[in-house]
Specification:
The complex is a heterodimer of chains A (271) and B (265). Chain A has 271 residues and is mainly alpha-helical. Chain A has 2 domains: 43 residues; 199 residues, MetI-like (MetI-like fold). Helices cover 75% and strands 3% of the residues of chain A. Chain A has 11 helices and 2 strands. Chain A has a two-stranded antiparallel sheet. In chain A, β1 and β2 form a beta hairpin. Chain B folds into 2 domains: 44 residues; 201 residues, Orthogonal Bundle (MetI-like fold). Chain B has 10 helices and no strands. In chain B, α2 packs across α10 and α4 crosses α6. The longest helix of chain B is centred in the last third of the chain and has 35 residues. Classes of the chains: A mainly alpha (271), B mainly alpha (265). At the A-B interface, α1, α3, α4, α5 and α6 of A face α1, α2, α3, α5 and α6 of B.
């Protein structure tokens, strides 16, 4: 324990002197890095706009209220589209992610040398690109519309679902698998009776959780043309129709809260 | 009953047969209804396949050089934005997180902090970015503000949960020495939550970089803006180069942060 002697008294301190110096050096380096990064970042900032912000906030705020409630009628159809994008995207993702998860899990993969790294790469690639970027690409490739949104959501969700699912598969109780194998069951039967019942609650939880995230993400996919309520947001922003923007924000907020509530209920029921 | 006639079948997921079939039918009906609203112009998709092929082949010949300046500028903006917003966000999240911990904060402070966290978490980054771009103008500063706000919500929530889970024995022990509120926080709470806080900070650094690649689409600076321009020009070679860079940085960040986390915990 680091103890310092001063005036004949022994004083306790938390760290030894070198450790203390190292801590201070680390803090200093962090602050220096922050200041440097800040200066690089704000090199091109036009500060007049920034100092003008309170004025802008007051201005936009005044124009945003009251929301244009009459616009609500035009939002039901895009909202329905948004929910469909999220749900169909999740369904598609589940169909593709389940085989990937079984190929990636150490205890079910057919070959740990070739197939497993491939499956892991699919998972990482899908996870590192945001669904909005997938949508940006897909709109350029297959044209604007719901289909681009659904595929974008699915591509982003594969990695998420497959990752959590393969971790669940790796954590199963092995004795049940052994018991089923001992009855002379085939590989498929072992998976169906030994593994699937064990991962079913995790699977249901993961899927609902991802569906909830997908609802959030699908609300903004329209910004790049992939359908849903985001298209209306983009159109309203383009013409600076702030009362409509407010209404869209409120609708999105309500949808997100509702989906969060539903997914919490479902997860509570299955787990 | 003769033994031969008894075959076992696994119990169904939902016990009540009426409820089970109602759910199955409902799901099927919804699927049919939802699929019918998806209008697909197969001609456009068919035309797009060619473009998709060009795009995928662009990954074998990514063009890092012809717009190297723009890509470098975007990357610098993204990286500085990520770093500053993560640091600022964590610093601001600590007081909010302490305020949102049931066992430390008095209840008015608790409710204010929890409400702040709930609001900042339920708004999408991209929506916050739209508002900040409108307020402070185009550029990375809007991105910085967006990511900072998002980081506060995320970190404060997890920190508060962590503080609520601490072992109460050291808290009591330090209090018994007659320590004031600050030394108590510093010597009893902080050592218990620090390892996880560092781990979460690295994780958030990761997320912020990924998000910084997205919020550029609405004008908040960073590599997303560069990518958006490249896609608008159908410059697939450039876009492929940018995407490869993003994937590479995310992979490096994820790999190194998992190492640091293992070392810290």
């Amino acid at each position: 324990m680091p103890v310092r002697e001063r005036d004949g008294q022994r004083l306790w301190q938390r760290r030894t002197t070198p450790a203390e110096l190292a801590t201070w050096a680390a803090w200093l380096a962090t602050v220096a890095l922050f200041v440097y990064a800040w200066q690089v970042m704000t090199e091109d900032t036009i500060w007049a706009f920034v100092w003008d912000a309170p004025h802008q906030i007051a201005d936009i705020g005044a124009r945003m209220v009251p929301p244009r409630w009459s616009y609500l009628e035009q939002l039901w159809a895009p909202l329905w589209d948004t929910i469909n994008i999220a749900t169909l995207g999740t369904v598609l993702a589940v169909l593709l992610a389940v085989p990937v998860a079984f190929l990636a899990a150490r205890n079910t993969t057919p070959s740990a040398l070739v197939v497993r790294p491939l499956a892991l790469f699919v998972i990482v690639a899908s996870r590192s690109i945001n669904s909005l970027i997938w949508a940006l690409l897909l709109v350029a490739v297959i044209g604007p519309g719901l289909l681009a949104g659904i595929i974008a959501i699915a591509l982003r969700s594969i990695g998420f679902i497959a990752k959590l699912l393969y971790e669940a598969i790796e954590e199963i109780d092995h004795t049940q698998v052994e018991a089923i194998t001992a009855t002379g069951a085939s590989r498929g039967q072992v998976i169906a009776y030994g593994i699937v019942p064990q991962i079913m609650p995790a699977f249901a939880g993961i899927t609902t959780f991802r569906w909830d995230i997908n609802i959030r993400e699908s609300t903004v996919l329209g910004l790049v043309g992939a359908g849903g309520i985001g298209l209306n947001l983009q159109a309203s922003l383009a013409v600076l129709a702030w009362p409509q923007v407010t209404l869209i924000f409120l609708v999105i907020l309500a949808t997100v809260i509702a989906s969060e509530w539903i997914s919490a209920k479902v997860r509570y029921a299955v787990i | 009953m003769p033994a031969a006639a008894r075959t076992w079948s696994p119990p169904p997921l939902i016990r009540n047969p009426w409820l089970r079939w109602a759910i199955y039918l409902g799901a099927l009906g919804y699927l049919a209804l939802a699929l019918s609203t998806v209008e697909v112009s197969w001609l456009r998709v068919y035309e797009g396949l060619e473009r998709g092929r060009v795009f995928i082949s662009a990954f074998s010949s990514p063009d890092f050089t012809s717009r190297a300046d723009e890509i470098r500028q975007g990357m610098i903006e993204s990286l500085t934005m990520t770093l500053t917003s993560t640091l600022a966000g964590i610093l601001l999240a600590i007081p909010v997180g302490i305020g949102a911990a049931r066992n430390l904060a008095p209840s008015p402070v608790y409710y204010v902090c929890r409400a702040f966290i709930a609001v900042s978490r339920s708004l999408q980054e991209i929506i916050i970015a739209i508002l900040f771009v409108a307020m402070v103008g185009f550029g990375p500063l809007a991105g910085f503000l967006t990511l900072t706000l998002a980081t506060i919500g995320f970190m404060a929530k997890l920190l508060a949960e962590d503080i609520e889970d601490v072992d109460p024995a050291p808290l009591e022990a330090i209090r018994a020495t007659g320590a004031g509120w600050w030394p108590w926080l510093n010597y009893a709470v902080q050592p218990q939550v620090m390892p996880r806080l560092i781990g979460l900070s690295l994780y958030r650094l990761d997320i912020n970089f990924r998000e910084s690649a997205v919020i550029g689409i609405v004008g908040a600076g960073g590599i997303g803006a560069t990518l958006n321009t490249a896609m608008d020009r159908y410059d697939f070679d450039d876009a492929a180069a940018i995407l490869l860079l993003i994937i590479a940085i995310v992979m490096v960040a994820e790999y190194s942060s998992s190492h640091v986390r293992r070392w810290v915990q």
